Amino acid sequence: MVIAILGVISMMLVGCTQPKELPEENAVYYWRTDLRLDSTERAFLATYNIKKVYCRYFDVVINDTATGPMPNATIHFNDTLPDGIELIPTVYITENCMHQPHKGLAQKLVQRIKQMNETNDIKNVHEIQIDCDYTERSRQTYYEFLKEVRAAWLEPNNPDNTSTHILSTTIRLHQLAMEAPPADYGVLMLYNTGDPRKWTERNPILDIRDVSPYLKRLDDYPLPLAAAYPVYSWLRVIQGVNVVHTVEAAEILQVKEAVEKKRQGLKRSIITYHLDKENINRYKPKTYEAIYHH
To answer: What phi and psi, each to the nearest 5 degrees, are found at residue 42?
Structure first.
C-alpha cells in the first residue's frame, strides 16, 4: 500500500513538472509585404542582438466565393537578413478557415513555404510558425491542422529527427484557458488585448487591466512560451475622425514585469512586433533595452 501511494505521488510530481524553458534570445516580427531593410532597421537588429526574425510569408483567408482557403498578401523578397539571423516563415490563418477541416491545406501551406524558400534562395530554415486566433469553435480543427503541418514539415526529412524542425504557434491571452496546441512552443501575444469598441476606456493594443485576469493561468500552461510586446501604432477612422493608438513605454514595461513575475521563463525569449523604422523611432533606446532585458 505504501509503495502504491508513493508511486501515485511520483506520477503527480512528474505531471507538475514545468515545461522546458526556451533559450535566451531576442527576436522581432516582420509584418510587411516587402522584405527590404533600411539602415535604421539593420542597426536595430545589431544593437539589440536580434537572433530571429519571424517573417510573415502570407496570409490564408477564405476567398470571396467561399470555395476554400486561399493565400493572400504574399511577401516579396527584395533584400536579405544580415548573417547570423535566423528567418522563421510565419503564416497568419484567419479563424474562419478553421471552422471546418480542409483536406490537403496543411500540405499546400508547407509546400508553398518550401517553394518560396527555394525561389528566393533562403536556406537553413528550421522552423515555421502558424498564427491563428482560434476559439473553442475552431480549436479542435486547428489542432488537427497543426498536426498535419508538422507531418508535412518533417517530410521528406527523418521523422525521428524533430529537434531541427520546429513548429511554433501564437497564443493569445484567451487561449491560455484552453488545452495547449500540439506545437513545440508558443508565442504569448501581449498585444491586441482589448476591445476596439471600448477604445475610450482602455488602449485596445495593450492595457494591464486586460492582461491581469489571465496571469493566473501562466504558471500551469504546459507549453514553453516566448513573449511578444507591441511597439506599433494603430490608425483608425472613427466617425470620420482619425484616432491613433500607441502604447506608452511604461505600460509595456508594467505588463512585462507582471507576466515575468508569474512566469520567470517569459524573460528568456523576447519578441517585439514589429520591425519598422517608425516603430523603432517611437521609443527611446532605453525602452528597447528594458524590453529586451533578460
So the answer is: -65, -40
What's the start-to-end Cα distance of the chain, in Å?
Answer: 47
- The CA angle 47-49-51, to the nearest 5 degrees, is 140
* Phi, psi values for residue 217, rounded to 5°: -90, -10
Spacing of C-alpha 231 from chain mean position: 15
Rounded (5°) CA angle 18-153-187 = 40
CA dist., res. 14 & res. 24, Å (int): 25
pTM of the predicted model, to two decimals? 0.92
pLDDT tens for residues 199-219? 888 999 999 999 999 999 999
The pairing of beta strand 50-62 with beta strand 69-72: antiparallel
Cell matching residue 137: 469553435
- Per-residue pLDDT band at 8 (split at 50, 70, 90): very low
Predicted pLDDT at 136 = 97
